[in-house]
Amino acid sequence: MNIENSCIVIFGASGDLTFRKLIPALYNLFRVGRLGQHFSVLGVARSELTDDSFRTKMRDALIKFEKAEGQELEDFCTHLYYQAVNTSEALDYAKLLPRLDELHDKYGSCGNTLYYLSTPPSLYGVIPECLAAHGLTTEEYGWKRIIVEKPFGYDIKTAKELDEKIHHYFEEHQIYRIDHYLGKETVQNLLVLRFSNGLFEPLWNRNFIDYVEITGAEAIGVEERGGYYDGSGAMRDMFQNHLLQVLAMVAMEPPAIINADSMRDEVAKVLHCLHPLTAEDVKNNVVLGQYVAGEVDDQMVVGYLAEKGVPADSNTETYMAIKCEIDNWRWAGVPFYVRTGKRLPTRVTEVVIHFKTTPHPVFSQNAPENKLIIRVQPDEGISMRFGLKKPGAGFEAKEVSMDFRYSDLSSASSLLTAYERLLLDALKGDATLFARTDAVHACWKFVQPILDYKAGRGRVYEYEAGTWGPTEADKLIAKHGKVWRKPSGVMKKKV
């Protein structure tokens, strides 16, 4: 699908996300010829910058983060423009009209506009209203699309309220709720692995799978985001959006055809089938934790309550583990164990499919488990674990693996990053990897009982930084006869 000429308007253009992720992503798409020459980028924020000062700031960011240089860098920067706007004041949006007309005329983009909300969530409902007040959302003259960053709401009530606000000015087909996890190559490869191979699909069900484990671990703490994170926590920051979406892609049914509507239909079906949590379920199957001082990568680090911007009496969770189930034919009775946390031993996101053991252990009482490990980050790849005969006398089985790593591909350097892929898809009008409103609501509906439990001052356990979380999380999975994997950060080692 070819990209039409367009203008990309970034609200919050003076912020960290713009110069660390968005501009580098657009530069790399330009560098490999994906954007062509007929595009423009208009940065919008309150800061009083000129086109030249904005270009200088973005040029410096590209040199720092992408090692960009030469004529290619200079050519890209000529496509960058800036307009200062008070984004909370509707009348000030009138300044956008002549700038957009100028850019559409110069680049022949015929009114095609992609709005990117790289702003605080408090503006997610304000900006669409202000754009609409000046006729900047209508598609009578070119398409209009809007990308909304997470968090999409704070709970089920605020998510629905935000949806109503945005839908008042944009149709669902115009709204792209971005989750950068879904832009990662290995997450997408989950679908190809499952649906293009006859090997896996017959085994991908309750008859052959014992349990599924999903881990989203970070070694870092909250860094300079203590104030923001304290109002979010691990549940909202990682579980409600990223990890539930990954779970849905693991568990979804094959789509009838590969297009945005069919794919998102199947994702939504899985999320609607999540077994509703009662208060007793939350008490027995959810563990929340908060890190205290400890050692990570041979360095002592402070506890969460000592982080900058965090209230001394905060009850915010920095760790979450949950056992959940899916009420449908394929997955009935198969537990999904999901955990995420900060200040864990390593940064790693992976999915582990634990297959059932042989019905009769002929060669060994301790035969290796069959596992399929899908590493999302870092060192993206896939590993299959199974048993073979250990060299020597007898028939003792030993675990071996077959591994694939994206870094081993000669073309690995040309793989698109998550933001590159998602920005490109939005410009093409391909919403496959963007969350639809019904899926977002299903996620919040599932999470709401945990939020209610937490609001009632539900127990948050301490865990030492540099460990794999509270001992209660180990007990959660152990009482069902399972154990958490303890992965390292690289696939090529035995993990």
Q: Please, could you describe this protein's structure?
A:
- This protein is an alpha/beta fold.
- Helix content is 33%, strand content 21%.
- A nine-stranded mixed beta sheet has the order 16-15-14-13-7-12-11-8-17, sandwiched between helices.
- Helix 1 packs across helix 12 and helix 6 (156-167) runs antiparallel to helix 13 (437-455).
- It starts with 5 loop residues before the first strand and ends in a 17-residue tail after the last helix.
- The mean pLDDT is 89.
Number of strands: 17
* Fraction of residues in helix: 25-40%
Catalogue the unreliable spans: none
Give the number of helices.
Answer: 14
**Envelope shape:** globular
The strand order across the widest sheet is 16-15-14-13-7-12-11-8-17
What is the C-alpha radius of gyration, as a whole number of Å? 24 Å
Average pLDDT metric: 89
Question: How widely separated are the two ends?
Answer: 39 Å
Task: Please write out the topology.
Layout lengths: L5 E6 L4 H16 L7 E7 L5 H16 L3 H8 L2 E5 L11 H12 L5 E5 L8 H8 L10 E5 L7 H12 L7 E3 L7 H11 L13 E9 L8 H5 L2 H19 L8 H13 L6 H7 E7 L1 E3 L2 E3 L17 E6 L11 E6 L6 E8 L15 E7 L3 E9 L7 E9 L12 H11 L8 H19 L4 E5 L6 H8 L17
Parallel strand pairs: 1-2, 1-4, 2-3, 4-5, 5-6, 7-12, 8-17
Antiparallel strand pairs: 7-13, 8-11, 9-10, 11-12, 13-14, 14-15, 15-16
Helix pairs in contact: 1-2, 1-12, 6-13, 9-10, 9-13, 10-13
What key phrases describe this protein's structure?
globular; 17 strands; 495 residues; alpha/beta; six-stranded parallel sheet; nine-stranded mixed sheet; 14 helices
